[in-house]
Amino acid sequence: xxxxxxxxKKLNSINGRGYKAYKDIAGEYDFGEFILFIDYVQGDPFxxxxxxxxxxxxxxxxxxxxxxxxxxxxIALEDYITRNVALAxxxxxxxxxxxxxxxxxxxxxxxxxxxxxxxxxxxKQFVEARLSVGLPARGRQVLSNQAEIxxxxxIPKIVRExxxxxxxxxxxxEKHVLLVEDxxxxxxxxxxxxxxAFIGEGSILPRRSGVSDLPLTGDxxxxxxxxxxxxVSFETPNNGLIYGMGIPEGVTLIVGGGYHGKSTLxxxxxxxxxxxxxxxxxxxxxxxxxxxxxxxxxxxxxxKVNISPFINNLPxxxxxxxxxxxxxxxxxxxxxxxxxxxxxKAKLLLLDEDTSATNFMIRDVRxxxxxxxxxxxxxxxxxxxxxxxxxxxxxxxxxxxxxxxYFDVADTVIMMEEYVPKDVTKEAKEIALTFKNLRKKEGGQxxxxxxxxxxxxxxxxxxxxxxxxxxxxxxxxxxxxxxVIDLSAVExxxxxxxxxxxxxxxxxxxxxxxxxDNYSIFEIVKNVERDIDxxxxxxxxxxxxKHPGNFARPRRFEIAAAINRLRTLEVxxxx
Length: 575
Prior knowledge:
3 domains, seven-stranded mixed β-sheet, six-stranded mixed β-sheet
């Protein structure tokens, strides 16, 4: 390992040379206060930035072990440090110093959620920050004097301010960590209370806009109020007694007039699979991990999915136990999305009628009388939702504004009135008895079978020409070889780095031969999850052991969703 003076000489020796001369500085350097690892050097100033790591030994960093003594605490502390590094970068880094990305210093950003990420690693030996750096150039001529400012002035300031515990607010870090620990505590206790979700009293659910995840502020914001009949509480280890509304297992309807907060409540529940930072408003909105938002997805490709629980007897004798299409309708796509979620062992489905296919959700008595069942291939969700719970233990939370027929199959009915929830289960059941539903049940004797599918290895090709090409193009798009995976209808993704990790999780499964014509999609993804649990999220990176790229951990449902939306996918049905 070279020291910082030897590194400075290297920089000075390449000043004014062609950009590829920067390749000479790759390596490890002891700066005294920290160790600099230059893992990857970009090929030109417009290419993806260089990747570096900054490591401080714990005998210098001195972060209290209690703050990372278990996995939950470690993830929370790494999130806190990532946010501190980002603030220090904003404070000390000058910015653009030439052509392209010259002068960039960046760490993977954090949003309102607290995710398992690769931006920071902390353990008993060291704390390490993984950064992207744009090495300065004028045109394609090295500006090593500007690089020297970055490495010898700005980066040391970032390290001192964010990677030394003596210089951070340890009390704030501990509060951050303990909040996450309590959120996980509640999530782990939901099942024993017979709940699928919890919304804490006083939560702020509305967001500032459709494109902002920040909480709405102002006089018109209504803090969440708990209906007395649905009130539950949790005695958390660190924040004491937290009470709010519990949503029971089974079939729950969220009803109410337009613009009264139905979809806002559902969106908060769907994001409750993640922990949230203090001040987000959803700190105590907690949902079981195995919850999946379902919607119609016109135009998606479907590959050999058994949608027969919902759709049968298609014209021209087309079967639905092994259904494929290049261009799914609203109803067939929604059926496929549900079955694919069930293949991955979902325990809670979240649906909003606004993003559902109408003919998939309900067929009223008048339509039943006009169009005979033998002429209608679709068995509507209303006739399957109870069977789904009774046969498989899968609960549903459903936003409904236009069909009271669902009162017959609901266990709980919550009405939103000016953003305030009311338990109207009793009233809904009385209405159901008063106004008899004359529609015929079309669901048969049970929900039906859920068939596993085995992806064929030959249908995955991450190469574009001679190179591996995997790239997240925004939150909802992945370039995988010559294919583009469209995740625009996968609504529980919250961070670009999750999307990036999904692409590399699939590639990792290929490299480890988990995609081998024998394992089902569920088995493939569970193998990847097991390896991440044992070795860390770095394991999916092609740069394992060095800079792992910008990854945030996705759930198995989103990885499977990407596999299912790969347009080259071929599967065989597992008996």
